[in-house]
């Protein structure tokens, strides 16, 4: 399979909603996605299957805050899960934000979502706390995870000369 990663647009809303409803018991509304897509402080990335006429198969919604990039929403279509798409989206986020050494990365994830926790740990996130009763559908706790800002290599004096 070949995937194209690009920023999401309003034209992608129907496909985003389809994936969101299949992925989450309490999906975001269309207006929530439209708001994030329009915000200058947000970064919304999609993975598109080039072998399936450019169908959206996963997305990542991120908001920029003073000291962190907050990963708000990650979802992959059911038939495309466990193929590295979420990891590719995270890697693209890190690539696009590597010139921003002031901000780390944070997210909340259900404590029962062991697959997602393992993915985030493999990407360098560490558990830093718990938000009790965070999820409205069942009052499940959320694990707060953090990844430090990406350290850019410091040029040596020999390279500067």
Describe the overall structure.
By secondary structure, the chain is an alpha+beta fold. The protein has a single domain (3-151), classed as Aminopeptidase (3-Layer(aba) Sandwich), CATH 3.40.630. It is 28% helix and 32% strand. Strands 1-2-3-4-5-7-6 form a 7-stranded mixed sheet, sandwiched between helices. The longest helix is centred in the middle third of the chain and has 12 residues, at 85-96. It is globular. The chain starts with a strand and ends with a helix. The model has no long low-confidence stretch (mean pLDDT 90).
Overall mean pLDDT stands at: 90
Radius of gyration: 17 Å
**Percent of residues in helices:** 25-40%
Shape: globular
Say what the CATH topology is.
Aminopeptidase
How would you name the CATH homologous superfamily? Gcn5-related N-acetyltransferase (GNAT)
Distance from first to last alpha carbon: 45 Å
Number of domains: 1
Uncertain runs: none
Largest sheet: 7 strands, mixed
Strand tally: 7
- The strand line-up of the biggest sheet is 1-2-3-4-5-7-6
CATH architecture: 3-Layer(aba) Sandwich
How big a fraction of the residues is strand?
A: 25-35%
The CATH class is identified as: Alpha Beta
